[in-house]
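Researcher: Next entry in the queue.
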Amino acid sequence: MSSTDQASFDLVDQPWIPVRMRDGATTELSLVEVVTRAHEVATLSGDLPTQDLALVRLLLAILHRAWDGPGDLDEWERLWRAERLPTGPVVDYLDRHRDRFDLLHPETPFFQVAELRTGKGETSELSKLIADVPNGRPFFTTRLGGELSLSYAEAARWVVHCQSYDPSGIKSGAVGDDRVKGGRGYPIGTGWCGRLGGVLPEGGTLRETLLLNLIPRRADTPSRTHADDLPVWERSPQGPTVRDDPEPSGPVDLYTWQARRVRLVADGGRVRRVLISNGDRLEPQNRHRLEPHSLWRRSKAQEKQRRNNDTVYMPTPHDPKRAIWRGLEALLPGAITADQRAEAADRLTAGVLDWVAELTEEGVLRSDFGVRVRTIGMTYDPKGSITEEVTDDALGLRSELLRRGAQHLVGLTRECVKASEKAAYALGTLALNLAQAAGKAPPPKSGMPDDGDLNRAIELAYAELDGPFREWLSGLGPDTDPVTAEAGWHRTANDVVWRLGQELHERAPDVAWAGRTVNDRLLTAAHAADRFAKALRQALPQARAAERAAASA
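Model: Structure for this entry, 553 residues:
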């Protein structure tokens, strides 16, 4: 650090967390301010969606430790009924650990190792730290021109993000780390959150969001009562070596898991360089009892490898090409029946959604309380060494839909998603049939039809159904009649997909009306239209049922 640099950047009092206020204004707040004013804040507004989740988890770790809880449902309900978060204990807690929240502290810099170095004293450009600058693909950067540098506030956010989402791959070999070979630290996997299918329930304010994710200590999860479930700032300062206890002691430990050893290099009042080395490796198997912010799936392949008859659950990453509502069933606690809640369940929803379900069942949350379920994730190349895409999607739901006893609503949404998929496929088949009627030949040597037209039309259908389905879903609540709601969605989906089909039909070339012989049968645009109409009726039968009932009345 040069002599012109300030000696401290205290995250407790210095603004660094980006937020959007309820009036729409954006600003940065310190740790004390973000808790004190959480009822005035609409949401976090990080540089990337993944930064939002990483920062929420940091705040949750602080609240759990500052309040030593909440201990049970009653204590949580008192927090929920209050207009503001009780900030006195938080201020006192942060003051006790202030040195560990100083980004530039000479001995214990926040989320860093003060004396981290390589054998040759190298450091790296900040493209290693900033996730919107994939290595080798600088044209994706949002920071074009000149040498990259960061304000201290920006650097603090990216250090938190790095510990959560840093790609795997070869890292700088730190002196003192006995895993280093030839000056290199070989891959140990991505940051912990990079392995998750992140799920974040949000309320109308940051206060509500934090509380919805603040799960009390529970008797059925002994790890939550462990006195050693500590965040990194309550542990002994970490050097370049791995920590003595390689297993996480609870969710708070996971929220601040140090997957990397980091040292920022400041000069001239800004951060200019960084050193990132391997930190603590963490395997993902069976962390579902500690990790509440992810979906999980049973892995029979992992079970075969273990050969000890143990059930193995793995985090379920999000598919960035698939809208959240198309995988809605995986999010709903009520989609897991009593039988499925056994150890051998094929999938598990996120613990935070189970918690919202419990709050609704206990009457703490109104059944029509609006919850925004947000899915956040980062995808990497097959080796996990390059950031490829960030996933961020959200659905507005009433909490009734998350209640385990809401089987009627869960079944309704499941069937309507399936009906939508069938309707989208009907449109795709129409596009394929029209292309074949116009004489479009299959790819050389394959003998199979080109499914490019089919897939493009299916994706078009999903894109057009997306907004209407989200709006329909947000209206489902305790007073919903499933029969009426299903008929309503069938009519809406039918109108959308039928219109798209008409547009495809009208654009068909003249040659398609004469048709071609396909599989020894004549196929024309008229044939394609008839098949489409039949397929759509089968996909969305309730759309026609209402019309028939009205006609017979």
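Model: Residues 53 and 200 are 7 Å apart (CA to CA).
Researcher: Noted, moving on.
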